[in-house]
Predict the structure.
Amino acid sequence: MVVTRFAPSPTGYLHIGGLRTALFSYLWAKKNGGKFLLRIEDTDKARNSQEAADAILKAFEWLGLTHDEEIVYQSQRDEIYTKYIKQLLDEKKAYKCYMSKEELADLRETQMANKQRTMYDGRFRDFEGVAPEGIEPVIRIKAPQNTEIIVRDGVKGDVKFQANDILDDFVIARADGSPTYNLVVAIDDHLMGVNEVIRGDDHLSNTPKQIVIYEALGFEIPKFYHVPMIHNAEGKKLSKRDGATDVMEYKNMGYTPEALLNFLVRLGWSHGDQEIFSMEEMITHFNPKDINKSASIYNTQKLDWLSAHYLKNSSNKVLADLLSEFDLVLTSHDKKEILLDVIKERAKTLKEMAELTKEILATPRFYDEKAVKKAFKEDSADILSAFSLKLQNSDELHLPSDYHDAMQEVVDEMAIGFGKIGQPLRVALLGKMSGPGLDEVMAIIGKNETILRIKNALDANA
RNA sequence: GGCCCCAUCGUCUAGCGGUUAGGAUCCAUGGUUUUCAUCCAUGUUACAGGAGUUCAAUUCUCCUUGGGGUCACCA
């Protein structure tokens, strides 16, 4: 059984990069009929908050990425960690170090001055004497020396580290007794049964430390997949300054989960030439072996394309529901089907759909000057008046084709081209030269509103 | 700086020794549309550099260069 997990520390919102590794983990678990677990890494009380944890959970809820089993909160597992720390101490695989912070800082300074690697020198490794007064010890693990540690990574291949290059007896418990990250990660992953770890490759270099702990505790080492980072346009790690990195911002901007997820799954992963993936397709096709080795630059123009694609292919019912989040209640509008058909073809986001709707439904308050100049000729007033009269005398006007027929008749009767009526009519109805088809617009706003808008335009511009 | 990772169109990517180096997006042009958008068609643009290995390297090896990550009593 494949068990994966996502383990954010609740220091802020759910990040776009975190979401991608979470998605990969989710897909891989689902594909294998396994489990996708969630663990909140809230051991740093100073930086963590419940609000942040809730925000992350809320984002997952929006995206429909459901986790299996209970969420694990590390802050509630002190006894477990304490037990394992004691075990390591008893087995002499770890020891208490009474070095003060000042001493440690001094050591680092001299090492730096001598251009040496900064590392703990192991001075308390075999200490058997009497503990110094007035200092609470940290607990350090006895890291192996003169050996090679190999991270068998499903994305990067075998990555070799020389213990002497990268390891020292690192701290596994602070002076206050609280465990550190590398220790709790190993313990929790083991206890939760996590056997496939998919995470950002910024974790690759501390994987050897976790392997040291796995081995000291006699745990089986999980399979690792270190997925490349997402970079900003400058090629640096994506940060808050790089525009929208909070997943929920995408909701506010009017993107749907399916578009965002489809966009993210293709960042660093591919399945041949396929671009469009439903959730089902993601699950059947996803395989971490197809994850790219190189970092990708975050650029959302493809997201816009995907979003527009999904909007176009969504049912009006679904769209009407989603649009209610954007201040747009269409349930009572009798021409909502026509309206939705029109706007979903033209918008990239739900937000744009809502704005477009308001543009159509609102009577123009002013008219674009250039448009008026271009569209209103000497005969425009006569033509629009004739059309208005035609509408007043017509009873059955419902469909776009009804309005089209009315226009056609005026065009025929006056022996003019379609542009003669279309251009000024467009300005009258929408206040500008571009926009949806006039037949549809008139059908949506109805006969009386159409007549009103023509009158307004003639009063203002003729 | 030490260690580690990475390198195909602007961007996302396919490629797994022999290809006119493919797709998508973006951009441009044309068509459709009374307009705009959509849609359709066409087009521009890429193997970082240098040595090897091989009959043959984008593909394998090494070096250079460039970029990134990481080096806490943070996660």
Remarks:
- The two ends of chain A are 75 Å apart (CA to CA).
- The domain at 78-227 of chain A is CATH 3.40.50.620 (Rossmann fold).
